[in-house]
Amino acid sequence: MTSLVTTLLNKLSFAETKQENLVINETSIKDWLIQRMAKMKKIAPAEVDTARTFEEYGLDSIVAVRVVGDLEKFIDQRLSPALLFEYQSIDELSRYLANELNTQEA
What we know:
This protein has 5 helices and no strands. By secondary structure, the chain is mainly α.
């Protein structure tokens, strides 16, 4: 029972990673995605290949929707649930989101 509670608390704290003074840019988005992928695949962040597709990492549509939901909280923006299928790697997705956020600020 304790491990279940700990697991749930860890998941909640991971989803609520947006920090007030954190600058959201391509680097911070990429770092968040690397941490998330490493946690999901149970590998070290240094082992995450940011050019590898989400499909190659074995992400299915259910997991992809969850990741997008958590990413929405991180960047404080609504996102398409299909985003990980449109931008298929960490590199592509972080670049796209950074460009979109910069366009919105301009």
